[in-house]
Write a structure and sequence with these properties.
Blueprint (H helix, E strand, L loop, with lengths): L1 H21 L3 E2 L2 E2 L24 E2 L11 E8 L11 E8 L10 E5 L5 E7 L14 H14 L1
Antiparallel strand pairs: 1-3, 2-5, 4-5, 4-7, 6-7
Helix pairs in contact: 1-2
């Protein structure tokens, strides 16, 4: 009987992944590189304004990079890189491949030239608006089901 319950939970988890994955995800899409002079549409130096940015369906033609999850990329120069201090760049978009292989995490590092970078990915609608991204409900459900199955 316990074996059937575990099998049922695993099957439900797999079905949840397929069902949720079949619907398109919506993400914010902007880049500080394309902001006009003196305007911060992408939340580079100020709080991200959800009213100013229109979310896109990641599987639609409006998406510059089609995908199944959202990503927020940040780059920042080292101190003293330019005479007036640091520069910072933010890109929010859809993505189809995470550099870490999983979503719901942030990865970071420093390039050879000293520029700090951070890439955060998530799989909930509009989740790339946040400063810090959290695990999705599906990821938490999968972890829970795996724990029950292996127990």
């Amino acid at each position: 009987m316990l074996c059937y319950q575990r099998s049922f939970i695993v099957v439900l988890t797999i079905l949840a992944f397929f069902t949720i994955g079949s619907f398109g995800i919506k993400c914010y899409q902007c880049s500080s590189d394309s902001d006009p002079e003196g305007v911060d549409n992408c939340g580079t130096y100020s709080k991200f304004d959800k009213e100013r940015n229109v979310p896109v369906e990641c599987t639609s033609d409006d998406s510059k990079t089609p995908g199944t999850f959202c990503v927020k990329l940040t780059q920042q120069s080292p101190r003293g890189f330019i005479w007036d201090g640091r520069w910072k760049k933010v890109i929010r978009r859809c993505a189809s491949v995470a550099s870490t292989g999983v979503t719901g995490v942030c990865n970071w590092g420093v390039y050879d030239n000293g520029v700090y970078w951070q890439e955060c990915s998530c799989s909930n609608d509009l989740c790339n608006s946040a400063a810090n991204l959290n695990l999705s409900f599906v990821a938490i459900l999968a972890i829970f089901a795996t724990f029950l199955f292996l127990r």
